[in-house]
Design a protein that fits this description.
Elements (H helix, E strand, L loop, with lengths): L5 E7 L3 E2 L6 E5 L8 E4 L7 E5 L4 E5 L5 E8 L5 E6 L16 E5 L5 E6 L1 E2 L2 E9 L5 E7 L1 E2 H6 L11 E2 L2 E9 L3 E9 L4 E2 L19 E2 L16 E5 L4 E6 L4 E6 L4 H4 L15 E3 L19 E5 L14 E5 L8 E5 L3 E2 L4 E2 L14 E3 L14 E4 L5 E5 L4 E5 L5 E6 L2 E2 L2 E2 L17 E4 L42 E3 L6 E5 L9 E7 L4 E7 L3 E5 L8 E6 L3 E6 L1
Parallel strand pairs: 18-19
Antiparallel strand pairs: 1-43, 2-3, 3-33, 4-5, 4-36, 5-6, 7-8, 8-9, 9-10, 11-12, 12-13, 13-16, 14-15, 16-17, 20-21, 21-22, 22-23, 24-25, 25-26, 26-29, 27-28, 30-31, 31-32, 32-33, 34-35, 37-38, 38-41, 39-40, 39-42, 42-43
Length: 558
């Protein structure tokens, strides 16, 4: 099949670092960074922003009523889903870090389509939601249990210093009208407890014999009412499963969503045949009495999720679980991916011979070369991008870094807000200042939400911005004639030739070719100035050719 290729634009393959920039985009290598738009919902202010890779605002949503409570997501249809809070004003009876009140849906044009409050003296939204393919919303919430209820469930009475206990539960909401919802599915941690403290209670048992249950007396936070503190939720539509981050247990949990609500309250039912019991847990086997301290792998983690945002099933990382491992060490964080040992034949996660769930080690990890310059004890997220890069947010400092698979930093962003107030470019924000950022999510230019939408930039978050940030890009088609590189033929079928004879490079050239899926289809170092690539196996489509030698890259498409 003949491949029709046309040059779209060229961009200088240089890494741009703006020495005077202390906020906003601090560095950017456009030839290696993943193109796209970045969604942020900074704390201490009410607006959600979509920024381009130059740090310019292309969209803004919100009103003056609710601050982040905490998450925000851009749906494929262009609608924004986000959580809002008024902090203690939302609910003084149940108030802790991450507390929410409402979930909003905003149109691309900025119209508030739906606002629903899940909030009362006995329950309260917090931290995160997951938007399902059918438009329903999975939400994390606390439920308030009295001292009497906690003791009846086997809690040690001496470990209830705050006079209540707030186990988490999950509700699935079907939006109705402009401010109502049907609760179509529920799961409660309270239905899946075990304890070895009080033999007179029905849930008494040997904790190590029941890894699928939650030990009500496992406690890492001195009896805090906010006992589990779930801080993320994600949904896998193929598996029909939910993954939860449970930082006070230093674990991630997977539960079965294919159950009915009645089955979710029991130990039977669903595709996993375990009802609402835990299908999988990982990070700290000591939480179910099957691991020593040296087997712990997670430390107050955030953003546990399946790696699937704009990744195709063919992507090598698709289906893995990613997590920001906040307190891996005293002064630095780690970013990880793992491969859960799922057996689709038995529809279960396989236990090791030690009676714990694998893996024993991470599939991939990253710590900053300087260690201490990338640390956040709270908040934070990671995202595997289609081109193989990883985007990471150190939430406490509002600092975001994008790295290549080789660990090279190719994009950096520093939130230009001092406790929610914009600062001028060149300002150095002290570490003690609240620049909280729960997450940053990047969506590629091909994301369906952007089809037919106006993405014209409208300014910057920072004051007195450096407007020359992207002025060094060469992006006009007529600039191609000025580049000393020739690629042809066009169209081509089985062979593509690169003529670099006008470029002097004693050390040779490293050629990389990427397809539109973000997959590298070719990489090799050449010493010759005329290079022929055999392309019989290439599909017709869009290709990015990068030539490592202070030269250029050319974007080609069918």
């Amino acid at each position: 099949m003949k491949k029709h290729i046309a040059l779209l634009f060229a961009c200088l393959a240089l890494s741009f670092v703006w020495g005077q920039n202390t906020v906003g985009v601090v560095s950017h290598n456009p030839s290696k960074a993943q193109a796209g738009y970045n969604l942020i919902f900074p704390h201490n202010q009410p607006y959600t922003y979509l920024l381009d890779n130059c740090g310019q605002i292309v969209k803004q949503w919100g009103d003056e009523i609710y601050d982040p409570g905490n998450a925000a997501y851009l749906h494929t249809n262009g609608n924004l889903y986000r959580c809002g809070t008024r902090y203690a004003l939302s609910n003084p009876q149940i108030n802790a870090g991450g507390g929410g009140e409402v979930i909003d849906i905003w149109s691309w044009e900025g119209e508030l389509l739906w606002r629903y409050a899940y909030n009362s003296p006995t329950y309260r939204l917090h931290h995160d939601i997951a938007v399902m393919p059918n438009g329903n919303i999975l939400a994390i919430a606390w439920e308030k249990k009295t001292v009497g209820q906690a003791i009846a469930a086997g809690r040690d009475p001496d470990n209830l210093p705050q006079g209540s206990l707030w186990p988490d539960h999950i509700v699935e909401l079907e939006p109705v009208g402009s401010n109502e919802a049907n609760i179509v599915w529920e799961w409660y941690a309270w239905d899946h407890l075990v304890q070895d403290f009080d033999s007179t209670k029905d849930n008494y048992g040997v904790v190590a014999d029941h890894p699928e249950l939650i030990n009500i007396n496992y406690d890492t936070h001195d009896g805090a009412a906010d006992w589990l503190h779930m801080n993320s939720i994600d949904y896998h539509p193929t598996l029909d499963q939910i993954v939860l981050s449970v930082p006070f247990f230093n674990e991630i949990w997977i539960i079965d969503h294919s159950t009915t609500t009645e089955e979710a309250a029991s130990h039977m039912g669903g595709r996993g045949r375990r009802g609402g019991d835990l299908l999988y847990r990982w990070g700290n086997a000591a939480a179910y009495d099957r691991g020593a301290a040296n087997t712990q792998r997670l430390y107050f983690q955030h953003d546990a999720h399946w790696l699937d945002i704009e990744l195709t099933p063919e992507h090598p990382d698709y289906g893995k679980i990613g997590v920001f491992n906040n307190r891996f060490a005293e002064n630095y964080s780690m970013v990880n991916t793992i491969i859960p040992p799922f057996d689709s034949t038995t529809w279960s996660y396989l236990l090791t011979d030690k009676g714990t769930w694998g893996p024993n080690l991470y599939d991939w990890y990253y710590t900053s070369p300087e260690r201490e310059d990338f640390y956040s004890d709270i908040l934070s997220n990671m995202q595997r991008l289609p081109n193989g890069n990883t985007l990471m947010t150190a939430g406490r400092s509002g600092y975001v870094r994008e790295i290549t698979p080789m660990g090279e930093t190719v994009w950096e962003y520093k939130l230009p807000l001092n406790a929610g107030i914009p600062v001028s470019q060149g300002t150095t924000i002290p570490a003690s200042v609240n620049t909280f950022l729960f997450r940053m999510k990047r969506y590629t230019p091909n994301y369906p939400a952007f089809i037919g939408k106006d993405l014209t930039p409208s300014g910057y978050l920072e004051l007195e911005p450096n407007t020359e940030l992207c002025g060094q890009w060469v992006s006009l088609e007529d600039e191609l004639t000025q580049l000393p590189i020739h690629i042809g033929p066009n169209p081509f079928t089985d062979q593509l030739t690169l003529d670099l004879s006008e470029v002097v490079s004693p050390k040779g050239y490293e050629i990389e070719v990427w397809n539109a899926k973000g997959e590298r289809v070719y990489q090799f170092r050449h010493n010759e100035s005329r290079i022929s690539l055999h392309t019989q196996a290439w599909e017709a489509g869009i290709y990015l050719i990068r030539i490592n030698h202070r030269t250029s890259m050319k974007l080609l498409r069918q």
